[in-house]
Specification:
The protein is built from 20 helices and 21 strands. It is of the alpha+beta class.
Length: about 625
């Protein structure tokens, strides 16, 4: 999540000074480009690996601060939530065995954090969205206690003026409100960096946009969120909505989302992209800056462009342009932010090599993307990939193509050529691009999750299914088998001994009645569905009562055609919260001699448990 800000007061005076630094940074960058000061004689790659921490029950483990302190390595840093950690890999020159070297460093760093995690009874897992994350882990008590994160949440929440809304439709539908930006913490990615010569930046950036759809389609790994089967890469929808400050109004107006693909092909230089973002997005973070970029440049130094870099870190383009300074030299790079973490290190490195190969091998005919493809086509390809993954149908240079055909016939040859151009070891090229080809023909991480999730749901409750799925994912990662070779989950058994909370065993697909419903309809619904208990809601969607079969029997003489549900329901309802312990719920049911317990958050019912669930 970028730079940690320790000294900022976020005051209006600091903001005023910061704005001038931001303007000066843009001018300084323009001057450096004009004077040829940006490094252009070397190409480097880099990456950031995000990971989830889980406990022995395969649920989120909020121990990042303890683990990072214990590991004591500058490569590791925090993320928004205390159950996520990020590791920053060293940059490597794009040549020979750079991918093998980077893969080796990634393995060593992950082994290092695993050892520290084990000391704190935690494990690490690589996945785009951890299946076992629940709404309980999205509260403010799970936000990493660092000023930057609190400030982002405070500002974006104030701009929003209301709860954040998440609405995503797939095979299931998720629709809920949330009072913080912490939904962003559900997303874990493998962010890729590629240094680009300044004179080729716009051609490369437009090409990066054009290939985003098929590249994403071949590596989807995030189909589940809060037990719902949604997009093949749900991160794309979730990330945009979790940081969306746009206010719904009755007026027809267009606002650029803070997380997004972009709105058009780029024409001039990287500076124009930064200017667009500053023009369309408000400043979220500020900090005190000592050195003026124009003054540093005039004195013969290389400015860090601190204001621009901080601002840029809060605008979340899926392909983000970046400025940096390494070894005393300024450079430009493209950061690919849409690749999910996992399913294995081998899969991630294959994704990396495929993308870098495509970028490096861009045929000359694709230098002018605006003349070849409408921007909206590239954008639509991207969202088709996110929703449908490997089964997406793409529009490529005027032709409709399946992902399999596009990757095999068009993109893999380009990637191979690009890696050869930089003398990457042939063995690494064949190994990594071979994984991409086999995955395109076989299955992605998302497809493996969905297939097994559906089978598990036939055998067990939702909570058990997502735990067993996560357990199998973790096991396969340890064996380092690329996902196209993962076997179906077999022999998993629901073990109720591991259940502790009511939320783990409650039924969430509820049939509900309303106070004004007629009693005869209620009776019919209960008979048709063989249900003995039905919750009753009022007009505000609040739990108002409970209708039970035994209670209806007491009103045999009532005219069911005239009577309303409100006439016969139990109005004093005993309910529990999702985090009520199962043993406590059982005692409540025994004490009051009742057959079910509604599970509520505040006054709204979210589930129900019966005696059958406790057996």
């Amino acid at each position: 999540m970028g730079e940690h800000i320790k000294e900022s007061s976020f005051s209006e005076e600091e903001r005023k000074v910061f704005v001038q630094h931001l303007i000066d940074d843009i001018q300084a960058l323009e001057n450096m480009l004009r004077e040829g000061l940006i490094e252009d004689d070397v190409v480097r790659i880099g990456a950031e690996q995000e990971m989830c921490l889980i406990n022995e029950d395969y649920r989120p483990s909020p121990k990042s601060l303890k683990i990072i302190k214990d590991v004591d390595d500058h490569h590791f840093t925090t993320e928004f939530a205390t159950y996520n950690i990020e590791v920053n890999l060293d940059p490597y020159t794009l040549e020979k065995n750079c991918f093998a070297t980077m893969e080796q460093q990634l393995r060593e760093l992950l082994d290092k954090v695993r050892k520290s995690a084990n000391k704190h009874d935690a494990r690490i897992i690589l996945t785009g969205i951890l299946p076992t994350i629940s709404k309980d882990e999205l509260g403010m008590d799970f936000m990493t206690p660092i000023p930057r994160y609190y400030r982002i949440n405070e500002v974006l929440t104030a701009w929003r003026g209301d709860d954040f809304t998440v609405r995503i439709k797939g095979a299931d539908e998720l629709s809920l409100h949330h009072d913080s930006v912490l939904f962003e913490a559900c997303n874990t990615s493998f962010q890729l960096h590629l240094q680009i010569p300044p004179e080729d930046f716009i051609k490369s950036y437009n090409w990066a946009q054009a290939i985003s759809g098929p590249v994403l389609g071949g590596c989807c790994n995030s189909p589940l969120l809060l037990g719902k089967e949604l997009w093949r890469e749900t991160r794309i929808a979730l990330f945009q909505q979790s940081l969306d400050t746009r206010i719904w109004t009755k007026a027809l107006r267009e606002e650029v989302p803070r997380v997004g693909f972009g709105e058009k092909w780029q024409k001039d230089s990287v500076v124009e992209i930064f200017k667009q973002d500053i023009s369309t997005h408000r400043i979220v973070l500020t900090k005190p800056i000592q050195n003026n970029a124009l003054k540093v440049l005039k004195e013969g130094g290389i400015p860090k462009l601190e204001a621009l870099s901080l601002f840029n870190s809060t605008v979340y383009r899926w392909n983000r342009p970046c400025y940096g300074v390494g070894n005393g030299k300024p450079h430009l790079r493209i950061e690919n932010r849409y690749i999910p973490a996992g399913p294995t290190i081998m899969d991630e490195m294959a994704n990396f090599a495929f993308w870098v190969g495509l970028m490096a091998g861009r045929p000359k005919k694709y230098d002018d993307m605006p003349s070849l493809m409408d921007f909206r086509t590239a954008k639509l390809n991207f969202f088709r990939a996110a929703t449908s993954g490997r089964h997406a149908m793409f529009s490529w240079m005027g032709k409709a193509m399946t992902m399999k055909k596009l990757i095999r016939e068009e993109l893999l040859p380009i990637a191979y050529s690009g890696l050869k151009k930089f003398n990457i070891d042939e063995e690494d090229i064949q190994r990594l691009l071979g994984i991409i080809e086999k995955r395109a023909n076989g299955r992605t991480g998302a497809e493996w999750q969905i297939k097994n999730f559906r089978e598990l749901r036939k055998q067990m409750k939702l909570d058990s299914a997502i735990v067993q799925l996560t357990k199998a994912m973790y096991k396969n990662q340890q064996e380092e088998i690329p996902v196209h070779q993962w076997e179906p989950i077999e022999g998993m058994v629901e073990t109720k001994e591991s259940f502790r909370w009511v939320s783990q065993i409650m039924s969430t697909k509820l049939i509900k009645l309303y106070e004004e419903d007629y009693a005869n309809l209620a009776l019919a619904i209960m008979q048709w569905n063989n249900i003995h208990h039905l919750p009753v809601e009022n007009g505000k969607g609040e739990l108002a009562g409970l209708l039970t079969w035994s209670h209806i029997e007491k009103f045999k003489k009532l005219d069911k055609k005239e009577a309303r549900v409100s006439d016969i329901m139990v109005k004093k309802v005993i309910s529990v919260a999702p985090k009520t312990e199962i043993t406590t719920a059982k005692k409540i049911m025994e004490k009051h001699n009742i057959g079910c317990l509604p599970v509520c958050v505040d006054t709204h019912i979210v589930g129900i448990i019966s005696k059958v669930d406790l057996k």
